[in-house]
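Z., the sequence and structure:
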Amino acid sequence: LTHSIHSAGIDVQTTALSFELFPPKTEEQRELMWRSVAQLRRYAPEYFSVTFGAGGSTLDYTVTTVRELREQHGLDAAPHLSCMGGTRAEIRALLGAYAELGCRRIVALRGDMPSGMATPGEFAYAVDLVRFIRAEFGDHFRLEVAAYPEFHPQAVSADADLRHFVEKCRAGADAAITQYFFNADAYFRFVEVVRAEGVEIPIIPGIMPIANFSQLRRFSAMCGAEIPRWLERRLSAMGDDADAIRSYGADVVAELCRRLLAGGAPGLHIYTLNRARATTAILDRLGIRLVYTSPSPRDFL
């Protein structure tokens, strides 16, 4: 499906609209997520991705969410898969389970070291995971990998970060999803540099809605995403006015998306945090209209 964007003389077609979820752990979180999915599915996204819970019952939440998206709601789901801390046998079994569920897309990541573990497991980097999946499952899965327009926070240098990304692409990645950012020039420069290295896969910008400034500041400190000084000052000046922050944030992020799409970005991957309101505000400002005007009956199963 194709979404048209008409604004300020721009007529941009995007065929890649996807939404990221995290697996709920409580019944309250579960109800919130499914209400959000019911709203977001009406924009006919290509897929919903589901973040990775590392180990034991936490991982079960990811598998359960993927299964319910696919089997109960008829939606394409792309599980995130982190190699950090996992063995080859564990990862092989998990990939086999996803294949049996009908998944054809995996978001392949290095991830963070699980709490309490001293060694990274059998794979140290995402490129190792990409190679393993290709060796074990061939072309069964479409592989999405991470990209960092503002550089990975643990990268020893900009050149090393670029080399690692190019290696992942050459190892068999089909597309990349970026960490979120608020500087469009960082994205365009990153694309320019990797294209010069011969990387031609789609690089889809990751978009973070602004709904809670304290939360955004905390996330950005952890992942190394820069909040521009002008944006931080404006949001800080709004204090506890949640409505003002949401409205201004939607304006800012919609303008970022508009510029990215006008400049050739192949689509948008939105980090929803399991909430629809901030995401739909951005899409409405972009002029992306609902494809389905009412939820499917399966949304209420």
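Residues 218 and 230 are 18 Å apart (CA to CA). The longest strand covers residues 16-21.

Let me know what you think.
H.
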